[in-house]
Amino acid sequence: MNAFRSTRRYRIPMAGTIIAAAALLMAACSSPAGRVPLEAPPAVTIPAQESPPQRQPATPPVSTPAPETVKPVPEARATQVHAAFAKRNLMKHLQALQEIADEAGGNRASGTRGYEASARYVEEQLRAAGYKPVRQVFTYWDEDREVDTETFNILADTAGSAEHTIVVGGHLDSVRRGPGINDNGSGVAAMIETARWMAETGIQPKNRVRFAFWGAEEVDLLGSQHYVDSLSNKENTETMLNLNLDMVASPNGGRFVHDGDGSSFGDAAPAGSDVIERTFLDYFAENGLATAPAEFEKGDSDYDAFMKAGIPTGGLFTGDEDEKTAQQVEEFGGTENGEHDPCYHRACDDTSNIDRQLLHDMAGALGYVTVAFAMLPRADSE
After folding, report:
1. Nearest to 247 by CA among 256, 239, 235, 238
2. Which of 182, 190, 205, 270 is deepest in the core (most CB within 10 A)?
3. Taking the C-alpha atoms of 355, 299, 315 and 153 in order, what is their torsion angle to the nearest 10 degrees?
4. Distance between CA 293 and CA 151 in Å, rounded?
């Protein structure tokens, strides 16, 4: 989460658990000129069994596997995806990032050798799954050292239509005070495993998925802002949606889904964000997992640049320095009046600061929603 703000970003209401689709408050809102309205995706279709990793490069598009190697489940359900992610080793990525921080003076901040080593690790994981990651370099002014500092985002694409791009993003950097394992190694791990799972299952997306690991989020959301600022008008309208992962394994946390339709906090996100929220909620509801809404608050995480650009946005969060309420204890367990993450932006944000079950729950939700929209037929491309 962005270190610049001293107050907590996501206000979480004390209302009861949300397990049903939110009201369609955005129906009357028009989309920006040229943007195709976002429709609800059908049931996710995945191969019946995971096949060996597909090592072909994802960009340019890979060839379609032989029909006998991909046997889709007509109505694959969220429970299947949840079960698949329960078997995935997300902690190995957090352990690797912890080792990197330990060897780099205790952090993985942008502009440091810890960030460079973190980036190399992510790139190695993506290449092993058949992706071709690239660095999007930018420079910012480091106020502490009073020097221009160069850093970068990492971008990796699947096959699929570039005219309908899904940007799955989370920041890779930590604060300088700690290793950033929950904030945001947890989001990074979920993204890596979603990318690997898609490759290993032989999913052939209709719409391109771009995995984006942002730099300098903890400075002032700079990596994601640079990315959005670099988009042409055409590329903006071709960005179908953004999914944001930032802190998804808080040790005293909950399953918080961003309030895309504004029904909980009053301010709706760009048109189509309600559809993203409902798709996340459907996943959790089918798996019998409690959720609560989290506010989109300006300047708080990497979703901000996409929202300002009118791009439909959604995401997941498990809490930071806010205290857990009695209602949230009833829904999620944990300690009342304790911080969701007592190690937020501190040196103790290490591998012991992780709720492994929450991590798997949220990673599975990311995988499901990513593929749901990646496989969504678009009327303008038929």
Report:
1. 256
2. 182
3. -90
4. 33
Q: pTM of the entire structure? A: 0.87
| Geometric angle at alpha carbon 21, from 18 and 24, rounded to 5° | 125
Q: Is residue 43 part of a domain?
A: no
Q: Could you report the per-residue pLDDT of 2-18, keeping only the tens digit for each?
A: 755 433 334 444 433 33
* Distance (Å, whole) CA 64 – CA 83: 26
Which of 193, 217, 238, 321 is the catalytic position? 217
236 lies in some domain: yes
The residue ranges of the chain whose pLDDT is under 50 are 5-30, 49-75
Query: What CATH number does residue 161 fall under?
Result: 3.40.630.10
Active site residue 286: no
Q: How many domains does the structure of the chain reveal?
A: 1
Contact assessment for residue 287 and residue 78, using Cβ atoms and an 8 Å cutoff: yes
How much is the pLDDT for 190?
A: 98
Backbone angles phi and psi of 355, in degrees to 5: -95, 105
